[in-house]
Design brief:
By secondary structure, the chain is of the alpha/beta class. It has seven helices and 13 strands. The longest helix is centred in the last third of the chain and has 14 residues. The protein starts with 7 loop residues before the first strand and ends with a strand.
């Protein structure tokens, strides 16, 4: 797959606050710096919040080369049109299960279009899992860092453990970091502990749950992972 040296991940939209002075909102967006390339994974739910946070964090939307959308829900796609009004030259990678009108809307902005169904190389060392799940189909992003696979999830509707097992199958590599929404809000302690045990069995080194992961899940992951738990939220910067 090839390695990406020193990818830098900045959470620019999330339910949780990490750096004071930024705004939270229901949704998720991660700014990914890969040398000369910049990928935006998901676009949060509100462009005003997204753009305001980007400005305060010194992130210029005109530098985005590619946008990867995890799934169709508005808290992950809501900021897209605002980005396209500023930077219509991006290429948008989205699940092929998205409705036809979504595709047509992208064409009206002149953006590049890549409909994704199976695992797909986005650039050297960066892959999408392809659509996973049945009811709500979703893709996650894989960055091949020298320390192992970095996995970025939107909401993990197909099941966070299922996603990680698929990543291991696709890459054959250890998973260094999992960052994003784990979709565990409201899950009971016994289920959460079983999921955390699965993370350990899979060999996940570091975790950075946010968005839809849930407070209790974050507490238990922090308890288990200690210094390898990353308190993710708006403004958090994670180097790998």
């Amino acid at each position: 797959m090839g390695n990406v040296e020193n990818p830098i991940l900045t959470t620019v939209y999330d339910n949780y606050m990490h750096e004071p002075g930024l705004r939270t909102g229901l949704g998720f967006s991660c700014w990914i710096e890969l040398g000369e390339e910049t990928i935006l994974f998901d676009t949060g739910g509100d462009f005003g919040i997204l753009l305001g946070n980007m400005e305060k964090l010194g992130k210029n939307p005109e530098k985005i080369n590619k946008i990867v959308l995890s799934h169709i829900h508005g808290d992950h796609t809501g900021g897209l049109e605002g980005i396209l009004r500023i930077n219509p030259k991006v290429t948008v990678y989205f699940p092929s299960s998205f409705p036809d009108e979504f595709n047509e809307n992208l064409k009206s902005y002149g953006a590049g279009i890549r409909e994704i169904s199976q695992e797909t190389k986005i650039e050297k060392g960066v892959w999408t899992t392809g659509e996973l799940g049945t009811w709500i189909k979703e893709q996650s992003l894989i960055i091949n860092s020298p320390k192992g696979s970095v996995v970025i999830t939107g909401c993990a509707h197909p099941g966070i453990v299922n996603i990680l097992r698929e990543v291991k199958r696709l890459t054959g590599r250890e998973i260094y970091l999992v960052l994003g929404g784990f979709h565990l809000e409201g899950a009971g302690d016994s289920d959460l502990r079983e999921i955390i045990n699965s993370f350990r069995e899979i060999g996940v080194k570091k975790v950075a749950p946010c968005h839809c992961s849930g407070e209790r899940a974050r507490e238990l992951f922090r308890e288990e992972y200690g210094n390898d738990f990353i308190d993710n939220g708006v403004g958090n910067v994670t180097g790998t």
